[in-house]
G-protein coupled receptors family 1 profile domain-containing protein
Amino acid sequence: MGNHTAMSTFLLWGFSSFPDLQTLLFVMILFSHATILAANASVMVAIKCTHNLHTPLYFLLGGLSFSETCTTMAIIPRLLVDLLSESKTISLSECATQMLFFFGLSCSNCFIMSAMSYDRYTAIRNPLHYATLMTPKVCFQLMTASWVVGFLVSLCIVVIIFNLSFCDSNVIQHFFCDISPVMCLACDYTLYHETAVFVFSAFVLGGSFILIMISYVFIGSVVMKVPSAKGRCKAFSTCSSHLTVVCIHYAFAGFVYLRPKDRDSLREDMLMAVAYTILTPLLNPIVYSLRNKEMQVALRKVLDTANRFILQMANERTLNC
């Protein structure tokens, strides 16, 4: 990456401090990963196959599920391999690629959630013109802009970090190429680099969160004008799932990436990163399913269809035998 880089490989130390727990961690993380894939895939299939869910909100929710699935795919498969492998090395280019995709997708998730809050504001503020304001073209543009801006920010961070010189230790005290553990290994790491990365992180987390809060301030001002308490509760209920997901996502992300860094906090950051990487994409489809009757009905249909298909395949196999 940089002309002065002296190392070509890193060692992902991660959970190597717990050698007796490697198999248990593998089973737990594999189960969690499979659950994440199944849950998010179910949401995407339900949205695709249910005509009633072909609305802007569910288009954006499907995009968020897809993006979060890809986010975990950038981290978890490599982690599972490392848990069973003696060699935990990763090349400089692989490390940069992993960081680019993980943070590109993570940043995109923040902006997609901002787009979802704007969708809720539009639905509540202009219900009669909602269909003309949030057209499929507008939804696609919002989704595309989220991914483009997210990856541009991630690319800037990766360029800053991998133009540093790595000439001391090559042991990354983490289970993937996270920002702080990699930067701590640089010989010429300065306050300027830390500030630059912090500014980009704050732009994504702080900027998208402010957009979400602005949308909800406007939503609140509109809802409070509704004369009946039942009408206000109904309006707020359409936002409850999204607001819950936002709180979970930003609580974890803000703790990991916006608080002051030092070498002594790396293990704490790693444990929080596990929660952010696994719990967030796992809880999001659960929250939307538990608090949304339309999604519950659509998921039941998907599961019933899947069960019938499995039974049919099993019966055909039995007859062939």
